[in-house]
Amino acid sequence: DSGVTQTPKHLITATGQRVTLRCSPRSGDLSVYWYQQSLDQGLQFLIQYYNGEERAKGNILERFSAQQFPDLHSELNLSSLELGDSALYFCASSPYSGIKETQYFGPGTRLLVL
Amino acid sequence: ELKVEQNPLFLSMQEGKNYTIYCNYSTTSDRLYWYRQDPGKSLESLFVLLSNGAVKQEGRLMASLDTKARLSTLHITAAVHDLSATYFCAVDLLGETSGSRLTFGEGTQLTVNP
Question: Which of chain A's residues have a Cβ under 8 Å away from the Cβ of B43?
């Protein structure tokens, strides 16, 4: 158990809908990262937040957005969902940002878009 | 654009045998990570390699980094069934604002047979 928690574990929804994935980092960690894992694209970095501010951005679609709240938990919002958005979404956390440190991954949210 | 390539992608080996997984990356970096993923599970951090010539060992696994060759290896010694999993290498590049973004290889699916 990495100490990173994600909810929900599973999510089934329909095309065109909007969902919110939630992540709580390890106690004391200021950075939160979001990754998408799919058979087609593999593991892809989406976005990083550090202490409430966006720090790094990857191949995140415009339909997707994220934020980190003052209590450091983060949410990833996915809208206008398409079949291809079905994937495992991981959140990771680390103590700081831009420092050579391990990212600790949560259990993931499995999203199925029908 | 940073590219990270692993080989082999699939590895079936017998218990007691040795083998090496290779991770090549296309852009200079001195931050390389190895993760393990069991089916349907999250990613578990194995090694953090932060300098040229770095070598880390844990049990039957040993990882090394050659930043000049842009190559990392994960060596498995006397494999046992419990090592069956998918192994990912990931390279970290600083974001524009000192963020952190891991770029993952495709993963090597290791199966250790009795």
Answer: 90, 92, 105
Tens digits of pLDDT across chain B (114 residues): 889 999 999 999 999 999 999 999 998 887 899 999 999 899 999 999 988 889 999 999 999 999 999 999 999 999 999 999 999 999 987 755 578 889 999 999 999 998
* A106, B94, A41, A90: CA torsion to nearest 10: 10
* Nearest C-alpha in A relative to B42: A107
Give the separation between CA B103 and CA B101, rounded to whole angstroms.
6
Report the chain B residue with the minimal C-alpha distance to residue A110: B40
Helix (H, G, I), strand (E, B) or coil at A34: strand
Over its C-alpha atoms, chain B yields an Rg (Å, rounded) of 14
* Cβ-Cβ contacts under 8 Å, B87 against chain A: none
Which amino acid is it at B44?
Answer: E
